[in-house]
Design brief:
This protein is an alpha+beta fold and 721 residues long. The chain has 16 helices and 43 strands. The strands form 13 sheets. It has a 4-stranded antiparallel β-sheet, with no helix packed on it. It has a 4-stranded antiparallel β-sheet with strand order 3-4-5-6, with no helix packed on it. A hairpin with a 2-residue loop joins strand 20 and strand 21.
Length: 721
């Protein structure tokens, strides 16, 4: 019977896999950040004024302490040209067209390009502090003395602006000056006002268009007539713009709260927090020929680039990262970073849910092995399973799974939940919960299906799940800890499950997880008691009816307290979503009958329809493998925007003006549109993807298994090739 059931499962899996919209893993661009080390002399009481790039794609920074350049990941004093090494320029600019750097000092201007031939002396020191250089070699100077063109050793006056100069630029051989009240254009020997502005702060050029950044967004004008060509864009992440830059036709804006870029869809990518910048106040921006954008803040220089890579490249990065520093006794491990963001200081630490978090990594390696048959993927999966086996053997209880374990004296989380092991060198953590149980049935199912190839290997997995399920049944459907009492959340007894009304998700979820476990126990061991118990719970105690409850009925239901916790007042529980979807794989694939499988598919589809706005790749792919529904675009988008930096920096989005906030609701969906994952706070699958703010001081780092599982699932289900 079991063999027939698995044959049927295989056919069903193939039909869904073939129905999936298969995506090709072509290269895509994802922004990544690099933050350059700032030398000690610039760390305090320094003015970092502007960033400029030359035609060699070298980035430089003008400061009040001298001229600096990027070298080996850090800013260093630019001492390459000995005559200039100790001089402090007032301005440095790249010549239009050539990209040669021109330097302005109090008494002269010069360039090292063109064999150093172009230069000029200034009759009065310190009267000019800005410059721009046209492609034909004409130099425009600006300062307290107004504007002037050096010609044949003399300065030809070009007038005085009516307001303080903010920027001086050249485009197509024409010089432009920006003030807070307008754009001025050189016309003969004078500058005339091309366009009257209000609270202008910065400008750049896009073809024949001048893009103007203001205190209230940005807009465009014709560089020839001054007429408006692009209406004011107020609905941007941060309207108060300090600098504006056009890179390959895309508009970038630097603000006091980070930077943003307009994408091809007319939406905005937002770069703020330590994930992207060493300080949120962006003062100046410049780009190189490769499209890399350099952003200068009071704290130093940053670079945002968008290298092309594939999802496979991204998977390889996280595979390497995990093997390098995230494996603790076979578990996947969080890192503690002291100081924040310093990977070199990392220490692995236990968490309250080592089993659940490790299940994502173990699952990823099971799917990886099924796709590639790489021996190391199989090794990693069994290495993870050794940790799961030890959670049973490290304690003195029969069939009770510890949450985690550690060498004695080195525990980290929840010290009151730790117990002494029979082995004096070790401690184990109790208080095991239902989300850990979901991890056990999930890893047992995927190991059995994809990794266990011999009879001994299959028996090893079966024995693991048999011990746990026997403990639950023998203890009246509770996890019973060393104190002889049920744990807070390890409860599946009918009196507990059916105490909840159907409007509280625990009734439905608890029924789902225990029935899935019993079905799995029967399939792996062949023991009739598991099927009998499942049928008793479904038929006598209404567990099947509970499972079939419409998810749309789950709502605010106060007044039901469990161990002092009001279970119906906390809004939508995203941790329950995580438990449910991992369980659906087991529930559906190990169903006793085709009729049950059909009913389970309806349950999964019902849940997925509610979860679809979150675009979660794992939920999408599990639904594809079971109910057959699938959002291919959302899954691809999720994997492509999954952040490369998994340090838990403080992230803030709630202030953004480009997002549409929704009224408070039970599901806690804060916005109309989900922002990209690499703009969200770092989180696992059990968090609300619509949380706009979160994180901390960068003192912890996730591993990346959150990405690896959906990647390898997509490959296995042939949703991605």
């Amino acid at each position: 019977m079991t063999a027939k059931m698995f044959a049927g499962l295989g056919l069903c899996m193939c039909s869904y896999a073939m129905a999936a919209a298969q995506a090709t893993d072509y290269p895509f661009q994802q922004p990544v950040s690099r933050q350059y080390a700032t030398p000690p002399e610039l760390a305090q009481q320094s003015v970092l004024a502007r960033v400029v790039t030359d035609y060699n794609d070298n980035a430089h920074v003008i400061t009040d302490k001298g001229f600096y350049r990027v070298s080996d990941g850090a800013l260093v004093r630019d001492r390459r040209f000995r005559p200039l090494a100790d001089k402090i320029p007032l301005d440095v600019t790249a010549q239009e067209g050539s990209g040669h750097l021109y330097y302005l000092y109090a008494d002269k201007w010069l360039t090292n390009g063109y064999a150093g031939v172009p230069y000029g002396t200034l009759p009065e020191k310190g009267r000019y502090n800005r410059m721009a250089v046209a492609a034909d070699g004409r130099v425009m100077l600006a300062g307290d003395a107004g504007l002037a063109l050096p010609e044949k050793g003399r300065l030809r006056a070009c007038g005085q602006l009516p307001e303080p100069l903010l920027q001086l630029k050249v485009h197509n051989g024409v010089f432009y000056a920006l003030t807070g009240k307008g754009v001025y254009q050189q016309a003969g020997a004078q500058f005339t006002r091309l366009h009257a502005a209000e609270n202008a702060r910065a400008m750049d050029f896009r073809g024949e268009e001048i893009i103007i950044g203001t205190s209230n967004g940005y807009y465009g004008i014709s560089s020839k007539t001054g007429d408006t060509s692009l209406s004011l864009k107020r609905r941007v992440p941060v309207p108060g713009i300090n600098d504006i830059l056009v890179v390959n036709g895309r508009i970038w804006a630097g603000t006091d709260e980070g930077a943003f870029m307009e994408d091809s869809a007319g939406l905005y990518r937002y770069f703020a927090s330590r994930r992207w910048l060493n300080d949120n106040r962006v003062k100046s921006m410049s780009a190189d020929a490769e499209g890399n954008v350099y952003l200068l803040t009071p704290a130093g220089l940053n670079r945002i680039s968008s290298p092309a890579h594939t999802l496979a490249d991204k998977a390889a990065y996280f595979e390497r990262k995990i093997r390098e520093r995230h494996i603790r006794y076979g578990f996947i491990a969080n890192l503690h970073l002291r100081p924040g963001g310093d990977a070199g200081s990392s220490q692995m630490a236990d968490t309250d849910n080592d089993g659940l978090w490790s299940a994502f990594y173990l699952g990823s390696q099971a799917f990886r092995y099924a796709v590639t048959h790489e021996p190391k993927a199989k090794r990693y999966a069994w290495e993870g399973f050794e940790a799961f086996e030890r959670i049973l053997s490290v304690n003195q209880l029969k069939g009770f799974p510890s949450r985690t374990f550690e060498r004695k004296g080195y525990k980290n989380s929840d010290p009151e939940r730790w117990r002494d092991s029979p082995d004096p060198e070790w401690e184990w953590k109790g208080h095991t919960s239902s989300d850990e149980f979901v991890a056990y049935i999930w890893i047992a199912a995927v190991l059995h299906e994809m990794v266990a190839e011999t009879a001994d290997e299959k028996q090893r997995v079966a024995a693991f799940i048999d011990k746990i399920m026997t403990h639950i049944i023998d203890n009246k459907y509770y996890f019973v800890d060393i104190d002889g009492k049920p744990t807070l959340w390890g409860r599946w007894n009918p009196e507990y499950i059916n105490w909840y009304p159907e409007t509280i998700g625990d009734r439905k979820l608890g029924s789902t997880t225990i029935i899935a476990g019993l079905q799995l126990g029967y399939a792996l061991t062949g023991k009739k008691k598991y099927k009998d118990e499942a049928m008793r719970l479904m038929n006598k105690h209404g567990y099947l009816k509970n499972i079939l409850t419409d998810y749309r009925k789950i709502t605010y239901t106060p007044g039901y307290k469990h161990m002092g916790i009001d279970m119906g007042t906390g809004g939508w529980n995203h941790s329950d979503d995580e438990m449910a979807f991992l369980t659906y794989w087991v529930l559906y694939r190990y169903a006793f009958t085709d009729e049950l499988k059909k009913q389970y598919a309806g349950v999964i589809r019902n849940h997925w329809e509610l979860e679809r706005p979150e675009k979660n790749a794992v939920w999408n792919l599990i639904t594809l493998a079971t109910a057959g529904d699938y959002d291919a675009d959302a899954t691809l988008w999720w994997m492509r925007t999954f952040p490369m930096d998994l340090v838990t920096w403080q992230i803030k989005n709630s202030h953004r003006k480009d997002i549409t906030l929704l009224p408070a609701n039970f599901r806690d969906q804060a916005t109309e549109r989900l922002i990209p994952l690499d703009e969200q706070p770092v989180h696992r699958h059990n968090a609300n993807a619509f949380d706009l703010d979160g994180g901390g001081k960068g003192t912890s780092e996730l591993a990346g298994d959150e990405y690896l599982l959906p990647y390898w699932m997509a490959r296995y289900l042939k949703a991605l090739n």
